[in-house]
Amino acid sequence: MNLSDQVISLELAKRLEELGVKQESLFYYQNNPYNDGTECIDLMIKEWESENNENIIINTECENEDNPKYPVFTIAELLDKLPSALYGSSLQLMKGINFGENEPLYYGRYDMILMDFGCMETWPDKNPANALAKMLIYLIENGILKND
Questions:
Q1: Helix, coil or strand: residue 6
Q2: Where along the chain do its domains lie?
Q3: Quick check: 40 pLDDT over 80?
């Protein structure tokens, strides 16, 4: 699995930022335009220092502090942001198959199990991180989960 399959898309990163989700992640997207002005969105990693303040990871020379950055959550970071339980509900990440393309498809799923009609919402995506991000966005937008 590539790194890009383990982090959310730029579009979802921007939406989570709009919703005020605490932006702590090891990775981020940054727009680093080329000299001719064309857009270049880079997936970058934050500089990381050891306990002795030695740089272990240093970003590429194209990084520019003036350009906008959007934190990019990993699957593990998103799972940490989701509650372990919601009264009368369940949250799930499932892996299925996209029969038309014969490739994996991930589903974020929210079930309200105490309701008579068993209301369910699902968010399919080829990227499991995106499926989780869509679930988190839904829960915040609908007041099911408070954004702390």
A1: coil
A2: 3-73, 77-141
A3: no
